[in-house]
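Mods, move this if it's the wrong board.
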Amino acid sequence: MTLMTLQLYPTTIFAVASEFETFLGRFDYEVRDDMKIDSKGLVPLLTTGKAILVDVRFKEEVAAWHTGFALNIPLNELPRRIGELPKDKIIVAACPHKDRSAIAMAYLRSKGYDAKYLTDGLIGLAELLRGERAKDFMEDMNKAKTK
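Not the wrong board. Structure tokens:
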């Protein structure tokens, strides 16, 4: 049994490397620009249902504080849970800053998803969605869900 696992494992690693190499081979200034989005650009995409925010933080971080409207898939679970993500929407990966979300974005793009990472992170999104902006945003999100 162990021998079979050892034979299959390198093949899986090779396939992932090949997809990532394809992504890297297509990387140019246009891709570099397209892979980023800030909170001000994200909000209209969320309220119109064109994008999904994926919080890639660990479960303990999400338990301590979370947005309430993001899908939580920790970065280390993303390969196993990728099927939960729709291919017909923009997937915006987010973490407090941008280190893990950039990794998630690259992985998702290598798998054929239209993915971006949140450049100002969840910290920037929390700063943007304060007071009346939070109220307006949640009202718009609720309207989008009922459409």
